[in-house]
Specification:
This protein is an alpha+beta fold. 26% of the residues lie in helices and 20% in strands. The chain has an 8-stranded mixed beta sheet with strand order 5-4-3-2-6-7-11-8, sandwiched between helices. Strands 12-13-19-14 form a 4-stranded mixed beta sheet. The chain has a 3-stranded antiparallel beta sheet with strand order 1-9-10. The relative contact order is 0.11.
Length: 381
């Protein structure tokens, strides 16, 4: 089920979710563990950002020398261009600068640049950050921001949830490395899944199928259960948790090369922690596609050579040396085969957005199942 806050963000165009510093640090450290020089000599662009609110700029500015960055650029979006309107109050960081313009601050985006010691203390950190107004409102799709994208080596941000598909396309227009946050369900988007299947992008090192806490603007409606969960994680005030958020990247890290430890099919039937696997002592075969259904990632049999349908949460454990991704039931090739091999009956209709529609996903014993990714064992690992 899609997270309510993410669904509301798409509806209300409320894209103001602020990533927490520890989550950024934890994720970045995973790449440094794999390659200590991954950021060295690189220009990093943080679009959709604002150091007054965002921890991305704070993290990279404070660790500029440690990471060995060449240049840091972040850009913000004009308050009046945002779909979700909030009262705008300039900060002292902005208003005390001689080039501050109260009108421009509402209608123009800003660019923040860090590349040298400005204060003269022989260190390069957030105190040396310089800013100017952009010519436009800072929309990542503008020619102005595209030019900055083309200058950068690595792009890091939490893009607007409501524009995630567009943002991925925008990223893939270049060969640049990137690290972004998105919804777990974006795995199956037509703009995203083919990239995952062809190992052009993959999931990040942390934060998948676990809680990430985000700051939200004053007055944002937050579910009480999400607010309480954020408080249990140590965040009090204007925070919410998003249980299905994750990182997407094309920067390598060690966890994606760790193969799943799996049991044989026979051992799953004897020892699986899932009662239905032990009781049935069989994997069900799809009515509309030649593959077996594996309802749990840890129940994938190590000795099965054919195609298997697995939950999308499998992607968090996907090792490209261990498995090949064949497709998904959202993928046109898989769907076409499913439709050719099975006549959908009235029992395979489902309610989508209040409307009864034919189910295009996997079907077992005339019953529709949730989204599945189709995989095949690649080699013994």
């Amino acid at each position: 089920m899609a997270n309510t806050n993410l669904a509301n963000a798409k509806t209300a165009k409320n894209d103001e979710f602020y990533t927490q510093y520890p989550d950024i640090q934890k994720e970045i450290n995973a790449y440094l563990d794999y390659d200590p020089n991954v950021f060295r000599g690189k220009t990093v662009l943080l679009p959709c950002d604002d150091p007054e609110w965002s921890n991305f700029t704070k993290f990279f500015a404070q660790n500029f020398e440690l990471l060995g960055l060449k240049k840091l650029i972040s850009t913000s979006y004009a308050p009046e261009s945002k779909k979700y309107k909030m009262p705008y109050q300039p900060t002292l960081f902005e208003s005390e600068q001689p080039h501050f313009d109260a009108d421009k601050s509402k209608t123009h985006g800003k660019i923040f640049v860090l590349e040298r010691d400005v204060t003269g203390d022989n260190r390069i950190n957030i105190e040396d950050l310089q800013w100017q107004y952009l010519e436009g409102d800072g929309d990542f799709r503008s020619k102005e921001i595209r030019k900055l994208r083309d200058e950068a080596d690595i792009i890091v941000t939490n893009p607007p949830f409501s524009l995630f598909r567009e943002f991925v396309v925008w990223l893939m227009e270049t060969g640049k490395q990137f690290l972004i946050i998105g919804n777990m369900n974006a795995l199956t988007y037509k703009e995203v899944f083919p990239l995952l299947m062809n190992n052009l992008i993959w999931l990040g090192a942390t934060g998948f199928v676990s809680d990430m806490v985000f700051g939200v603007p004053e007055g944002t409606v937050v579910k009480e259960s999400d607010k309480k969960k954020a408080e249990r994680l140590g965040y009090f005030g204007n925070y919410t948790r998003l249980g299905n958020s994750c990182w997407y990247t094309n920067i390598d890290h060690g966890r994606r090369h760790q193969p799943l430890k799996l049991m044989t099919m026979a051992d799953n039937f004897k020892h699986s922690k899932h009662k239905d696997i032990r009781t049935n002592k069989a994997y069900q075969r799809y009515d509309n596609y030649d593959a077996i259904d594996i309802p749990y990632t840890d129940a994938i049999p190590s000795d099965y050579e054919g195609e298997m349908g697995v939950p999308i949460s499998f992607m968090d454990k996907y090792c490209p040396e261990q498995f090949e991704i064949v497709g998904s039931f959202n993928n046109s090739d898989i769907n076409q085969k499913a439709k050719e091999n099975y006549v959908l009956s009235t029992n395979t209709k489902t309610i989508i957005d209040g409307v009864e529609k034919l189910w295009n996903g996997p079907v077992v014993n005339m019953c529709p199942l949730y989204k599945r990714i189709v995989i095949r064992k690649k080699q013994s690992v």
